[in-house]
Amino acid sequence: MIQSNDMKTVNAATKIAALIQADPAAIDAIAEINPHFKKLRNPVLRKMLASRVTIADAARIGKCSVEDFFAKLRPRGFVVGDEDVFSPPAEKPGKITVPDRPFDLRLDVRADIENGHDPFRKIMHSVSALEPGQTLLLINLFEPVPLIRLLRDKQYTAETVQASENEVHTYISRGEAGGSIEETAEAGGAFDTIRERFANRMQVIDVRDLPMPQPMMTILNALESLPDNTALFVHHKRIPRFLLPELKQKNFEVVFQQAGDGVQLVIYKKQ
Asked: Does residue 41 lie within any of the structural domains?
């Protein structure tokens, strides 16, 4: 990630949000790489995607290489970390034949993305409707890398096919033995036990009235300044399913319980 010194050091794991925070003009530099990245100029989509996607993820989405990003960032004063491993240049998409693959449900979210709306809730609603052995065809403008990571963590399978230059098909399947998204997500642990452990060492925030995607951003910002041995107590409208893999990557644990018309969460650092 971006280092705390004066030099802007990056590698393949650097989040796009970190680039933009270090240099807002990096948006224009990235947008020159691939038309897909012009969507980062949309504030809603920028908040939705930038905090979830690394340079490596973006290179995969944009069918380019990590080095393509570095070539645009170096003139802006960014320095590439020595530990980075460059990915080979991606092949330019040509005429692609989409396999005749069966599916049970179909969801096209291209219009949502073009209009600046986060389609995550709509996608998860469709995924949750899958019965064991069924498949959802998700049609998107690009490969939904963070979503695929989340679903695979929940024991779903996801396979992506480039249908055309601006159309990606992702086949999401629920295994015969796999639980639903709700069933796996609800296995959060003993809420009361964790709340009691941090009873006198807890910060409280309420994101129930914030529009998307501000709840996720507010939680992440609060966690960045959370003191050691302290937990974050969150009042939320719903279980933030897209946030859970982000927290796991950052070594946080989460427990939650239903509370009235919403959800209460306790987020704490894994020991």
From this structure: yes
φ, ψ (nearest 5 deg) of residue 175: -70, 160
Tens-level pLDDT at each residue, the chain (271 residues): 444 444 478 888 888 877 888 888 888 888 888 776 776 776 666 666 676 788 888 887 777 888 889 998 989 888 887 544 444 444 444 444 455 688 999 999 988 877 777 787 788 888 888 888 899 999 988 788 777 877 877 778 888 888 876 788 999 998 765 555 544 333 334 677 788 888 889 999 999 988 877 888 899 989 988 998 999 999 998 888 778 878 888 889 898 887 777 889 999 987 6
The Cα–Cα gap between 130 and 147 comes to 16
Helix, strand, coil shares of the chain as percentages rounded to 5? Answer: 35, 25, 40
Q: Of 178, 200, 235, which marks where a domain is finished?
A: 178
Distance CA 193, CA 196 (A): 5
> Does 174 lie in the same domain as 190?
no
d(CA 120, CA 146): 11
> Do residues 172 and 196 both lie within one domain?
no
Q: Domain boundary residue among 147, 178, 209?
A: 178
Domain extent, residue 126, equals 105-178
CATH number reported for the structural domain that contains residue 220 in this entry: 3.30.110.40
In a domain, 18, yes or no: yes
**Which residue from 155, 165, 120 is spatially nearest to 138, judged by alpha carbons?**
120
> Do 144 and 204 have their domain in common?
no
**Crossing angle, helix 120-128 and helix 145-153, to 10 degrees?**
30
